[in-house]
Design brief:
The chain is an alpha/beta fold. It is 38% helix and 20% strand. It has 12 helices and 13 strands. α10 runs antiparallel to α11.
Length: 386
């Protein structure tokens, strides 16, 4: 199997924010992994790199491989807790074999590995005109390097279509991690115009973004390019979402309904999906639901937005503004008090008290999150990696 990775050679004079564009490119353009190579000589450089890896891992939507010279057992632990998928032992590592073996036992055998450069004429031919690439394999034992997966590390800095290269690799007999539909176009039921409707949602929030149609070419080109392709009934032609606006949609998953006549696509949306500039095409209330909202995710995000608004637009007599005015110490004190109330309520005979105390705790926690600029989406994303 050949994997294509977007590579970062981390500069110790920089922080994670300097690499946001590269991380976003890796997320959206079909790369299989993000590869980060670091080096550090001082404690401050190490701390900067470890902190940056926490942030990069939280922003990366694909697995992250990190190469770093390990000099202490703590280095392994910090990179592991940063949610790195794989840790590659770099030149400059001073840990002896027994310490590395202890790391494998504690953090998983596949976590601590070595790297071997691969010289492959066919791969050189595919990537000959694309800039700076390195071909490597990862292994655990020195005698275990044959018939391994090859990772293509892209340091070219060029903008190219990863899916095009995967197609060429496949034509030369290499296996790649390609987007391939589980169902052929023939297996889908088309409407009278020979089209299939597609409902599009945001892959992070499940928010419905828009609805469009696909013909056969749009269906297959979506998987070929990783970008959502549709068929315009008014123009009678295929089109790529974002080709004029820049508001591309990168496909994450797709399902067909029980009748096989409607598709549900989950995407990473760049910009907004609607030509009106709104964050959804579904904003006209035909019948407004005034019932009590009980969706936990929506309640927490709506609560966050209200608290966030209170901070920007203070309201006289608001308890939330009282907390913000008193400052972080007061907010932390209330979070601690409410956490203790949950413990006390849990020991009482009346279990229903717990829900009131948990609700109070989540409110005060939300105030703290707004104060520290941490969102529920970020927390949910972190939990999804646990």
């Amino acid at each position: 199997m050949v994997f294509i990775c977007k590579a970062i050679d981390f500069d110790n004079s920089k922080g994670y924010k300097d690499y946001l564009d590269i991380v976003n490119e890796a997320n959206r353009k079909g790369y299989d992994f993000l590869f980060v190579k670091g080096s550090a000589f001082s404690d401050s450089e190490k701390e900067n790199f470890f902190h940056s890896m926490i942030e990069i891992n939280s922003l990366a939507e694909i697995p992250v491989i990190v190469e770093f010279p390990l000099t202490h057992f703590e280095d392994m632990k910090k990179l592991y807790y940063a949610n790195s998928k794989t840790i590659v032992i770099s030149q400059g590592t001073t840990l002896d074999g027994s310490v590395i073996e202890d790391g494998r036992k504690r953090f998983g055998e596949k976590l601590i590995v070595n790297k071997e450069t691969v010289n492959n004429a066919a791969l050189n031919e595919v990537f000959s005109d694309s800039g700076s690439f390195e071909f490597v394999s990862y292994f655990i034992n020195e005698d275990d390097i044959s018939d391994k997966d090859v990772y293509v590390l892209d340091r070219s800095g060029k903008d190219f279509n990863v899916f095009t290269y995967k197609e060429e690799l496949n034509s030369k007999g290499f296996d790649t991690k390609s987007l391939k539909p589980s169902f052929s176009w023939e297996e889908l039921k088309k409407n009278d115009d020979g089209l299939v409707p597609v409902i599009v949602t945001d892959y992070k929030t499940d928010k419905i973004l828009m609805m469009a149609y696909m013909n056969e070419a749009a269906y297959y080109n979506t998987f070929k390019t990783g970008l959502m392709n549709y068929y315009s009934r008014s123009r009678r032609s295929q089109w790529i979402k974002g080709e004029t606006s820049g508001h591309f949609q990168y496909i994450k998953s797709m399902k067909a309904d029980c009748d096989m006549d409607t598709l549900l696509a989950s995407v990473s949306q760049i910009g907004v999906p609607c030509h009106t500039g709104k964050d959804t095409c579904f904003f006209n209330d035909v019948l407004k639901d005034d019932s009590v909202q009980k969706n936990p995710s929506k309640i927490l995000t709506d609560l966050y937005k209200v608290i966030e608004d209170r901070k920007v637009n203070p309201k006289e007599g608001s308890y939330t503004n009282y907390l913000f005015d008193k400052g972080l110490d007061k907010i932390l004190k209330k979070v601690g008090e409410e956490a203790c109330e949950i413990v006390i309520a849990s020991k009482n005979e009346e279990p229903k008290e717990i829900k009131y105390e948990i609700a109070d705790f989540l409110y005060h926690l939300s105030v703290l999150m707004v104060e520290k600029n941490v969102t529920w989406e970020e927390v949910a994303e972190e939990l999804s990696k646990r």
